[in-house]
Amino acid sequence: MKTWLKIVTIALLLYTIVAGFLFDVPRLNIVNETIRALYFHVPMWFAMVVLFCMSTIHAIQYLRKPSIERDLRSVEFANTGLVLGLLGIFTGMIWANYTWGSPWHGDPKQNGAAIALLVYLAYFVLRGSVENEESRARLSAVYNIFAFAAMIPLIFIIPRMTSSMHPGSGGNPGFNMYDLDSKMRMVFYPAVLGWILLGFWLTSLRIRTRNIEEKIIDFENE
Amino acid sequence: MNKIVLTCIICFTLLTSNILFAQEMTSPEMADVMRSEGKIYVVVAILVIIFAGLIAYVVTLDRKLTRLEKKITDKKG
Predict the structure, then answer these.
(1) Tens of pLDDT along A68-116?
(2) With contacts defined as CB-CB under 8 Å, which chain B residues touch A11?
(3) Which residues does chain A have within 8 Å of residue B68's beta carbon, measured at their own beta carbons?
(4) What angle do CA A12, A16, A17 make, to 5 degrees?
């Protein structure tokens, strides 16, 4: 990742933290000030979806033209995506506790998100259980495509088809309805971009670590 | 590293200074920004410090990796 992009990442996230707490937000019952959690909880999921998408793209590219590098990128994108997804589910539980009444409400959005994360956890279980490098890469690339195809309906479609308390899902408007003067968007979009970029940065660090590891193994074999 | 820290500080002061000037002064002027608005600025300051710390940690990790990569290419060449 280029240095200027890293600086942009830091600036965007710093802006999110400061503006997210200090700028005006719509005054709503029940949610009160917790509406500000929108700036931090929702970008986790946006970033997770983008990272999982990158992971799947690399998996498809691996299947078209196998190489260790592609497999490595695919795994590491999934890794960072999973971390962000877990942060998303835990922040969601805190938010749910104070607005819905309990941390785990059995809401379709929560259940769907949990199942999607389990599907991705199984991806790592699958990888860990195959010895042979080539078959591990091929199997996990195929599974990766399935995991992405399962995640989208679980998080975005099913909660919209049933009744869900989550804003933006079945029967509930998103916060964009209350954001009449688009003031929240001024913080929300930079936040989403900032967290996506941070996800890419962290992934690039992991990919580089793995590359160094590979090279050291090469040295030892020589 | 120093450049990054400097930009962070500038960014923070620029954002907070706007809010500072907007406040009305009814009682004798004191340095009590941090105690106004339900002390929300304290929370912001804490989060900024945590974020700065984590980013500094990531940046040092990034630099360490760059050093290792250089070492490996030197060894190869």
Answers:
(1) 999 999 999 999 999 999 999 999 999 999 888 899 988 999 999 999 9
(2) 7, 11
(3) 212
(4) 125
Residue with tokens 């989208």: A152
Evaluate whether A41 touches A92 at the Cβ level (below 8 Å).
Answer: yes
Instruction: Confirm whether the ipTM is greater than 0.85.
Output: no
- Residues of chain B in Cβ contact (below 8 Å) with chain A: 4, 7-8, 11-12, 15-16, 19, 40-41, 43-44, 47-48, 51, 55, 58-59, 61-62, 65, 68-69, 72, 75-76
Looking only at Cα atoms, what is the longest distance across chain A? 67
List the alpha helices (DSSP H) in A23-170.
38-64, 68-99, 108-128, 133-152, 158-161
d(CA A26, CA A180): 9
Q: How many CB atoms neighbour CB A62 within 10 A? A: 23
CA distance A160 to A154: 10
Token representation of residue A148: 């992405």
